[in-house]
């Protein structure tokens, strides 16, 4: 019994591991694909873990070390998954404020209240045709959809960063 508990504890610790290989590539066990560190920063404009109220607008800071395609996707407290937007961005720092790219615009928040997780999914090739993040997922199926997305792009360089905030 003790060995089983030790094994289960170790398995839990390793379940979200990222293994770094020679040359800087990361094999992310969560998504089952090689990730190349490309996303330097992803956070809401008030910082990770910040609080927003229903009806307020959120923007995201994103920094990349190379140009590429970014899908900004989220999962709400009820498991509803959706895309904020998709972008082609140059290397550098960006304020993602909506599809128009207008700095006076933001993504308006609506219920449900609670923890909102957001991912930036980077690839060096265009988005898979017809693929969208929508529907109700568990965190595991959201990970699986992210993995499918990464594979369907055919990208050689890909990365995933995640942040979170709360809606009150």
Automatic annotation (TrEMBL):
Domain of life: Bacteria
Pfam families per the UniProt record, alphabetical: DUF4384 (PF14326)
Signal peptide range: 1-21
Domain DUF4384, chain residue ranges per copy: 51-126
Keywords: Signal
Signal in keyword set: yes
Protein name: DUF4384 domain-containing protein
Source organism per UniProt: Meiothermus granaticius NBRC 107808
